Amino acid sequence: MITTRAAVLNEIGAPLELTDIRVDDPEPHEVRVAVTHVGLCHSDLHYMTGTVPTDLPVVVGHEVAGVVEAVGSAVTSLSPGDRVTGALTPSCGRCANCEAGHSTQCTRLEEVRLRQRPAFETVDGRPIERLAAIGAFSQHILLRENALVRLPDDVPLHVGCLLSCCIVTGVGAVFRGAQVRPGSTVAVIGCGGVGSAIIQGARLAGASAVVAIDLDDDRLKAARGYGATHTINGADADPVAELHRELGDGVDYAFEAVGSARTAETALALLRPTGTACLVGIAPMGTELKVPALDFFFQEKRLIGSYMGSGQAREDIAQFARLYQQGRLMLDEMVTRVLPFAEINDGFEQMKSGDVTRIVVDLQA
Ligand SMILES: NC(=O)c1ccc[n+]([C@@H]2O[C@H](COP(=O)([O-])OP(=O)(O)OC[C@H]3O[C@@H](n4cnc5c(N)ncnc54)[C@H](O)[C@@H]3O)[C@@H](O)[C@H]2O)c1
Ligand SMILES: [Zn+2]
Ligand SMILES: [Zn+2]
């Protein structure tokens, strides 16, 4: 067991508290990672503000990169000193869903997450929860070997962390989830970290039009840099009417990257007949959708969801890292600012500002 520093959420709606915690030794399939950089994702905020329930105290944070420090006795593919990012949905690799390439739907998740002892404890020995069995706002974390991907030397850790959540989620939703075809038309509602990654995915997929929709003009300006060909500010105009005015009968694919019933319903309304709406934003617990049933029959529309890139994160992250090396996937541009660990709460405040795509925290600074 080691002692390290973590940002702990002790109370819903309260700031994170930088505190010493204890981290258990790695179990046979686990790796202890010295965390260097973590991106601030809206999913962390969902837990911090209570829109998604969590036990307390908890260490949130999941968009993570770092350096392997110690490995469990059964680990074969990683060694101390390896630079890594997360492939964050733990999976057994052997159940029917894992075998079929849908690791995000592993049926043995509970079993995989089970540990002999708590991974994190307070210094006086009380267990601390970890968001999704990760808890990346800690200078040291434990992840299973198959939840890590080695990063090439020329992918800096402060941008490499984005690959583990917003990039694999957004670009994965385009290629694995909706399977966007070259020449097709795409709309993206919400242009934060995840939406910007979807826009880049649509550009890489060869979409002939990419319509970015947000409530903030600065986010829309940045969206053009990532590959949007059209922008609509939903605060000034009805996005459905505006999009139909610009693109006729609608788009082939509409992605929702906000997390609300209203924007999910808008995604379906933006589609042309036979189009696919893909929900990526996480709506508050208990949210229900109200959608016109006839859209599915007479217009043959499809409504799907995509979680963490739809299940092939290890392979995809390695490929997306190569696209970054070739200059085709923009990561440096997405990191608006790198803040020292002590300023993590300011970082969550700054996320609300339109000139931010992603704030990254340097846990060693
Ligand atoms: N499916 C997954 O696997 C997955 C993974 C990561 C994040 N998420 C979820 O994706 C969502 C986006 O995450 P993020 O980190 O990019 O958030 P973010 O805070 O960086 O960006 C959200 C964006 O949505 C815009 N927005 C808010 N309301 C809007 C509206 N009504 N119409 C248009 N735009 C609006 C904001 O201006 C902002 O640009 C969150 O709900 C997050 O929890 C899902
Ligand atoms: Zn995330
Ligand atoms: Zn499985």
Could you describe the 3D structure shown?
By secondary structure, the protein is α/β, with parallel strands linked by helices. It folds into 2 domains: about 1-165 and about 310-360, Quinone Oxidoreductase, Chain A, domain 1, CATH 3.90.180.10; about 170-305, Rossmann fold (3-Layer(aba) Sandwich). The protein has 12 helices and 18 strands. Strand 17 (about 335-340), helix 12 (about 345-350) and strand 18 form a beta-alpha-beta unit. The longest helix is centred in the middle third of the chain and has 13 residues, at about 165-180. The mean pLDDT is about 95. Bound molecules: nicotinamide-adenine-dinucleotide and zinc ion (ZN) (2 copies).
Main attributes of the structure:
365 residues, Quinone Oxidoreductase, Chain A, domain 1, Rossmann fold, 2 domains, 6-stranded parallel beta sheet, 12 helices, globular, binds nicotinamide-adenine-dinucleotide, binds zinc ion
